[in-house]
Target: ABC transporter ATP-binding protein
Amino acid sequence: MTSQTSMNVLDSSRTGSTSVRVDGLTMRYGTTDVLKDVGFEIPSGQKVAVLGPNGAGKSTLIEILEGLRKPSGGNVSVLGHRPDDAPEQWRSRLGVVLQAWRDHGTWKIGDFLRYISAAHRAAGVANLWPVDELLEAVELGDRANQQIRSLSGGQRRRVDVAAALISRPELLFLDEPTTGFDPEIRQSFYELVRSLAHSTTIIWATHNLYEAEEMCERIIILNHGRVVADGSPTELRATLASTSTVSWMSEQGPRRRVVADSDSLVRELVTGPERAWNLEVQRGTLEQVYLSIVRENNTAEEVRP
Model:
């Protein structure tokens, strides 16, 4: 399956370039291959979700792309540099929002962001986002002198986004950024990312299928260290478009069948002798696609020599 290459890129200067290129990437810990011949490219401006069950290799892949780990083999290029050997200024071209930060809760928000801004400036970055403007952009302008530990979870995540965007990065990593959020705070976070990072390439590691479909135009699924699927949500759903799940109530209780021709089954249930009610036809959902791909790959891994 090929990924979609049409992008909603508002920064025309980046259109047509490639932010990430991975070819034959492998990562081995002892005798265990955590990543196996991984390969993909991400055009500049594209929003990509990386999905996979625990142990699939997502975290290792992200750490390699961020330059935190050196791969065992293969070629990796991020913004034109090999991540594990990139110059310091390259790091200011990246933004990272982790699942959680361990920092000094007594710091004031404004001081925290100014500290990060100073670090980028020392690395030679000139076009920094002014802290006061950034605080207004993340709707924390009236809290600059408030201590970080006094913030709610959603407000704390807004500080993380501000810290990640202060250098106006070309590539933004979001690692499970909404874990533990209630639906209202999660939607607020989505709106914040849309408004502030519309032209930025984003790699979004998540377990949340709704999040992947809502925020990303492309999904890469990892399992057992391999890329097992890569495409847009529409393309991935099309892999199960030939089947539908028909559910209904009968005198014997709830019934459910997976069929290729749902129309014929529904017609049979409506006109046939068996009484049926509460009919429901469900086309292939992204969750069904994901589970189907992972289960199929698990079976293949069991028989792989």
About this structure: The chain is about 35% helix and 25% strand. The mean pLDDT is 87. The CA atoms of residues 23 and 233 lie 23 Å apart.
